[in-house]
Specification:
Elements lengths: L26 E3 L5 E3 L5 E6 L6 H5 L10 E4 L5 E5 L2 E3 L30 H4 L1 H11 L3 E5 L12 H19 L6 E3 L1 E2 L5 H14 L4 E4 L16 H10 L2 E5 L18 H22 L2 H4 L5 E4 L6 H13 L12 H8 E5 L6 H8 L4 E3 L13 H8 L5 H15 L4
Helix pairs in contact: 4-5, 5-6
Length: about 400
């Protein structure tokens, strides 16, 4: 049981039996009442859950119940999520969201129904069993179906969906407050709504961070636009980490995918990495972290190898006085090292070199469990093989320290 009680969300179905929320410190009470500290050596910075299809029935505020997302079968027989008549999710069906094991040939993704997905995505007790099998001490958790919420057009409906999801996620994590940490979904369709949900997630649910899609929310306005300034100021004030996490849907504006309409793998490569590069450009070159020096920003699920040449290119334009009329006050690489983190996949062979280049304490890694392109089992083993040339301290920073620093746990 964590040491510090949090305010209870009265709308959460689990609230009557759940007077405590996960704390932001790694201290818990032992059987004899003695304080003990959990040591984190292996931390998954970006895992996923699988939302139950009843989430919206059980958790959404009553005023929005008639407009809640619906699980439907489309005209092609694929499972989809429908929000006010708009179909979201992979046109091939949402069953792939829980299909980790496809990489090893253990799962046939084309025949998998959503509710047949990896049980640990739905159930925290089973999740812990899988984490123990890989020696993972803690996991920070992001949505699956909820990744599509950025495509919901109505600001208040998207806010209600985020509120329902964040309530449910807190209850999912509650049995393991020092091992499972929920990351809040924020409704950036309205800056005011996103700020309200950030406060609720931090002050009522005890969450330490939230995420946005890197795709534009308001036409062509980038995240450096002045309209977002109050949001960034509040994140600083609340000491609330903000990550960018792409999702496999083109329902939001997505750079470059129109050039590879028939090639799903190419679209996935383009959307995740290039949208994240643009978000990094807006946050770093666009001056967000320059103007808000206490922010903690992460770039997730897009690979990590691109960050070095991208920072080099920003620095090059910073140094060229003919190009830098919109430059921040500090070199972009310095701003990154002060305010930003990036997550690598366990199979990236550049990770040890870039740990030296950008600092091992600015690097995280992710299983992406239980998604189709995730890494289970043996993600930590894959990483350690690639980190073999580094010092023990650098290895620890990559395996755990970077994530703990980003989420404000250490």
């Amino acid at each position: 049981m964590p040491l510090h009680a949090k305010n209870v969300d009265p709308f959460s179905p689990g609230s009557s039996n759940n007077p405590f929320r996960p704390t932001l410190i790694a201290v818990h009470v032992g059987l004899e009442g003695d304080a003990m500290t959990r040591i984190y050596d292996t931390v998954d910075a970006d895992g996923h859950i699988l939302e139950p299809l009843t989430l919206w029935d059980d958790y959404i505020d009553p005023a929005f119940r008639d407009r809640r997302p619906q699980h439907v079968i489309d005209e092609n027989g694929a499972e989809r999520i429908s929000v006010e008549g708009k179909l979201l999710g992979n046109p091939r069906g949402i069953g792939s969201l829980g299909s980790i094991g496809v990489r090893q040939g253990e799962v046939k993704v084309n025949t998998l129904k959503y509710e047949e997905g990896r049980k640990g995505g739905f159930d925290p007790d089973t999740r812990i069993v899988d984490m123990d099998a890989d020696g993972i001490d803690a996991a920070f958790l992001y949505p699956s179906l909820g990744l599509f919420t950025g495509a919901v057009e109505d600001p208040d409906l998207s806010a209600a969906m985020c509120r329902a999801y964040n309530r449910w996620l807190t209850d999912y994590c509650e049995p393991y407050p020092d091992r499972l940490f929920g990351v809040a979904m924020l409704p950036m369709q309205s800056v005011e709504n996103a700020m309200a949900e950030m406060k609720f997630a931090r002050e009522t649910l005890g969450m330490c961070g939230g995420f946005l899609r890197p795709n534009p929310y308001h036409g062509k306005k980038m995240l450096s636009d002045p309209m977002y300034a109050p949001f960034w100021s509040l994140a600083e004030e609340l000491d609330f980490s903000i990550g960018f996490h792409e999702g496999s849907t083109n329902a939001m504006p997505t750079v470059g995918v129109d050039r590879f309409e028939e090639d799903r793998a190419a679209r996935h490569m383009v959307s995740h990495t290039m949208e994240m590069m643009l978000a990094a450009l807006a946050v770093i070159w666009g001056g967000v972290v320059d103007r808000h020096p206490k922010l903690r920003i992460a770039f997730l699920e897009s690979g990590g190898g691109w960050i070095a040449p991208w920072l080099d290119r920003m620095d090059r334009h910073f140094d060229d006085k003919g190009f830098n009329e919109f430059a921040p006050s500090m070199r972009p690489s310095e701003l990154f090292k002060r305010n930003c983190w990036i997550s690598f996949e366990p199979v990236e062979n550049s990770i040890a070199v870039l740990a030296d280049y950008i600092g091992p304490d600015k690097i995280m890694w992710a299983t992406d469990y239980p998604h189709q392109d995730g890494f289970f089992p043996d993600a930590p083993k894959m990483l350690r093989e690639r980190l073999a040339t580094l010092s023990d301290e650098s290895k620890h920073q990559v395996m755990a320290g970077g994530a703990l620093g980003y989420y404000g746990i250490n």
